Amino acid sequence: MPSASAWNGLRCASQENEVISTVTKIAYCSDRQCKYRKNIDVRKLLIDALDSIGLREKITLVETECLISCLDGPSIMFLPGGKVYQVSTTEGFSEILRDLITTAEHSTAFHFNVPAKNRKIPHITDVDFFGKQELIVLRNRGHIDAESIEEYIAHDGYQALYKAVTTMSPEEVIEEIKNSGLRGRGGAGFPTGRKWEEARKYTAGPKYVICNGDEGDPGAFMDRSIMESDPHAVLEGMIICGHATGSNQGYIYVRAEYPLAIQMLQHAIDAARGRGLLGRNIMGSGFDFDIKIYPGAGAFVCGESTALMYSIEGKRGMPRVKPPRSTESGLWEKPTCLNNVETFANIPRIIVNGSEWFNSIGTEDSTGTKVFSLTGAVKNVGLVEVPMGTDLQTILFDIGGGIQRNGTFKAVQLGGPSGGCLTDEHLTIPVTFDSLQKEGAMMGSGGIVVMDDTNCMVDVARFFTQFCVDESCGKCVPCRVGLKVMLEILEKIITGEGEPDDIEKLEGLANHVAKTAHCGLGQAAPNPVLSTLRYFRHEYEAHIYEKRCPALVCTDLIRFEVDADTCKRCGVCSRVCPVDAITWVKRELPVLDKEKCIRCKSCIRACKYGAIF
Amino acid sequence: MSGEELENIKQTYIEERKQEARQGVVNVIVHMGTCGISAGARGVFDALVAELGKLNLAHIKLKTTGCAGLCSMEPMITIELPGHSPVRYGNLNAKKAIEVFYSHALGGQIKTEYAISVGLERPQMRVAGE
Fold it and tell me: Into how many domains does chain A fold?
């Protein structure tokens, strides 16, 4: 941008000829800040100037927000071309404007000014959040338009499908997936190749392929993002699965809470059909395959494979006894191959690059990458794809940027309500299916909820138990009644009515439910309680024996008193109190009136010294 | 569709992008995943549409894409000038997005206050098979 002196230095050249202009529009800054500081009405100035040089009819004025920088304003921009000038004087404005309009080379070549203030912007690979990730499933994120099949194809899309249906037999595809060591990303980590092989074995047709997009864990949103931003990758994986298992019909079960994902998938299905990538005789191979979307009605248990199939059949979503496995008798009692969204999104890359390439990423028993949705008390909330075996330290502190508001890390909940929590002593363990299981947590679908010292672990356990109670289908007694009783005990503890043997009762009950519940939901539901009991037993004990909540979360256990030793007499508590329950005189200890107090905890949040307990 | 057609689509797409770059087409890309929309990306998108409506410039292309991964910095937009690496902006609102639009997409000056990063994510060497 030319400086003020350059602008002033432009001499007016008096020409009598008509002014010919390539400038068609002038955008001007209408920010009040600029206008009042320099006391220049740019709009009036421009109108007068254009009138006097006879270009009022030819040049359109466009009012905008701030251009370039407020400190240099007000400014105007010539379009096309985008040259910006600052208006520093009103004297001789029309002459200067005419000069600029006629001399500037705006026509077709777009002029880009050299950046004036160049704060070094890091390359994306140098930003820890992006640079430390390794993208397979999310490789197109934030880069392609999900509604354009051409963009997906241009980024090597449908190459895998072409390779699979024209050059590979179903057995070869299955062999490739088996060799890759890909394990189901839905949580249990069952080898995908083996599942496909089993589905292939049963000949009673028709067979089905189902994509499980019923992502219900609180704090998990990776499948949503994959379906929204790269829906074709999921479709391609499913079509390849259809080819491998000998199926002609696929279903995508997406929870109805994901309207955008449904819209994107439907758009992708229509586009793929239009291009002959779905439907009859795909790519001239004689193989037929089609996909339908089935929106789920909002039951968490329908993420369980057998309940999901009942739901598609129009029945009540309840898990059934296995065996027979769904690969033998699934949807409409036909052989069915069900995989998670992320698993399907991995397939095309494996087919294109080969199983050896996939094997080289991750660890020996957990190959490839895993997408995590990082949320909770971390600075960078978002989607993280890292090779299997990356430790939690890297995920939470390098990629996640550490704890918000300089808080202290306390625990991390992996795998949602079915998973368990881990503490700082586990930060160094490599994240794989087996290592997490050993520590009492689980990979789950990949939700990571980070907790800092403002989270009460008993309350966290109560939250997840409440979630499972709400979502229990009620088929078996341990889950329906057992969880309810566990919740009652937890609520007792939280409200300060905990009794000495409650911990033992809770533990015994949790173990029983885990052993005897019918399906995955019930068996895993006690995990949050068991793992918080394992690592944060002292918090339970503080609640029960000392009637105290160390994190100051459980309102019933807060005394709302001011600690005379730690209080610095700053009076901030009295200022934030919405009901004026705290009286404070300068340099005196604040006094809290418990009659007036509505227990909103504003004072606790405001006190920097933790003096209210 | 045959393999040849697949390759054709790819080459046509690449050729079109090159052609656009030669013509000086600027891409303004709004990240419109659910996370973006919930943070206000719809407002950003509408503001940009309104601004483009006022200006009626043929060389600006407004596009949408999905979540870029960093949900806590939504709404985000990416600006691609021909011959330059794309620049990603975050923590925007409609007003800030318009500032970025004028400063960078039209004026060619990176709005450093809101920029997060420049360039594309590490090209997946192994994915690209190179």
Answer: 5
Instruction: List chain B domain ranges.
Output: 23-128
Mutate to test the interface with A, among B1, B51, B112, B113 (most CBs of A within 10 A): B1
> A294 and A199: one domain?
yes
Superfamily the domain B23-128 falls into? Glutaredoxin (3.40.30.10)
Compute the average pLDDT of residues A98-110. 55
* Same domain as A319, residue A441: no
In the predicted structure, residue A592 carries a pLDDT above the cut 90: no
Please indicate whether, in this complex, the C-beta atoms of A228 and B6 are within 8 angstroms of each other. no
How far apart, in whole angstroms, are the C-alpha atoms of residue A472 and residue A525? 9
Neighbour tally for A359: CB within 10 Å: 16
| Strand pairing category for A75-79 and A382-387 | unpaired
* Alpha carbons A319 and A596: distance in angstroms, whole number: 51
Q: Greater confidence, A35 or A137?
A: A137
User: Which of A507, A523, A545 corresponds to the end of one domain?
Assistant: A545
Domain shared by A170 and A292, yes or no: yes
- Where in A128-276 does DSSP place strands (E)? 208-213, 249-255
pLDDT band at A453 (very low <50, low <70, confident <90, very high): confident
- Based on the domain organization, do A323 and A239 belong to the same domain? yes
Q: How confident is the model at residue A468 (pLDDT cuts 50, 70, 90)?
A: very high
B55-80 mean pLDDT: 89
Say yes or no: B83 contacts chain A, CB-CB below 8 A.
no
Q: How many residues does chain B have?
A: 130
pTM score above 0.80: yes
| Pick among B28, B42, B106, B124 to test the A interface (most A CBs inside 10 A) | B106
Residues 6 or more apart from B125 whose CB is under 8 A from it? none
d(CA A10, CA A205): 83
Pair (A177, A311) in one structural domain:
yes
Question: Which is higher by pLDDT, A125 or A458?
Answer: A458
Q: Which of A77, A124, A135 sits opposite B119 (nearest CB)?
A: A124
Q: Range of A25's domain? A: 4-103
Q: Within a 10 A sphere around the Cβ of A23, how many other Cβ atoms?
A: 22
Whole-angstrom distance, CA of residue B59 vs CA of residue B21 = 10
Q: Do B127 and A113 touch (CB under 8 A)?
A: no
Is B116 within 8 Å of chain A by CB? yes
CATH classification at residue A26: 3.40.30.10
Q: Quote the tokens at residue A419.
A: 């998973």
Do residue A162 and residue A237 come from a single domain?
A: yes
For residue A589, being part of any structural domain is answered with: yes
Tell which residue, A347, A334, A287, has the closest CA to residue A166.
A287
For residue A181, give both structure tokens. 């060591």
Residues A397 and A410 in one domain: yes
Please report residues of A whose CB lies closer than 8 A to that of B24.
Answer: 108-110
